């Protein structure tokens, strides 16, 4: 029992709203990151997400449809994250380190999936502020902390960063310049006719479909 009396279809719509928003921005976020810089897009996206997460308990109690629209906006902001991280990594990792880069930043998904339910269940059991809103306050504040760290320590390119050594800057510049194939023309025809692309799309769809079911609906089942 709780104060938010939403039936199963309403709850499912809220889960789906996040992905509706992501579909609206995922295709344009990569070109925008290349044009305006991935750091700006990341800061903007995480700021929007952190605000929405922090205010989620209040918004949810105010009006269901208001919260539904806000969830779509949340998804739109999330659509900028992965392409922006990939764009940022293309300037910060040598070609031989690209696979390690992908493993490094995607490991956060697995870590959060393993730890967040444990933390969330403990917070739900607390008597402070009804318990469950503490989850949103905690992760919203973590987002704001990340914003501060990113703002001061992250830059689009190694040459703009004051926190790394000259040796590392030279290494990255030489590695990236020797293999640079960046272009402003996106080969859409080659992308949409590539069997490798469709294989990746199918594999990711299958993985995230199962992940979404487990993360979103298993807690409801156990409840």
UniProtKB/TrEMBL annotation:
Membrane topology field: Multi-pass membrane protein
Localization per Swiss-Prot or TrEMBL: Membrane
Pfam families per record: MFS_1
Cellular component per GO, a single term: membrane
Transmembrane segments: 12-29, 41-60, 72-94, 132-154, 197-222
Keywords: Membrane, Transmembrane, Transmembrane helix
PROSITE patterns: MFS
One MF term in the entry's GO annotations: transmembrane transporter activity
Domain of life: Eukaryota
Alphabetical GO biological process terms: monoatomic anion transport
Every Major facilitator superfamily (MFS) profile domain range: 1-223
Name of the molecule in the record: Major facilitator superfamily (MFS) profile domain-containing protein
């Amino acid at each position: 029992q709780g104060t938010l009396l939403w039936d199963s279809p309403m709850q499912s719509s809220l889960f789906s709203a996040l992905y509706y928003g992501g579909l609206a921005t995922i295709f344009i976020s990569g070109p925008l990151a290349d044009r305006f810089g991935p750091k700006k897009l990341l800061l903007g996206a995480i700021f929007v997400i952190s605000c929405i997460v922090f205010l989620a308990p209040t918004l949810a109690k105010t009006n269901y449809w208001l919260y539904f629209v806000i969830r779509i906006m949340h998804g739109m902001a999330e659509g900028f994250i992965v392409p922006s991280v990939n764009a940022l990594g293309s300037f910060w990792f040598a070609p031989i380190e690209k696979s390690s880069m992908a493993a490094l930043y995607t490991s956060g998904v697995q870590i959060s999936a393993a730890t967040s339910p444990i933390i969330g269940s403990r917070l739900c059991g607390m008597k402070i502020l009804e318990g469950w809103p503490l989850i949103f306050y905690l992760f919203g504040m973590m987002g704001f902390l990340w914003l501060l760290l990113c703002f001061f320590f992250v830059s689009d390119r190694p040459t703009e960063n004051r926190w790394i050594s000259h040796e590392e800057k030279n290494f990255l510049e030489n590695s990236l310049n020797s293999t640079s194939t960046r272009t402003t023309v996106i080969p859409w025809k080659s992308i949409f006719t590539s069997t490798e692309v469709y294989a990746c799309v199918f594999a990711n769809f299958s993985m995230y479909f199962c992940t979404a079911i487990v993360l979103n609906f298993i807690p409801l089942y156990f409840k």
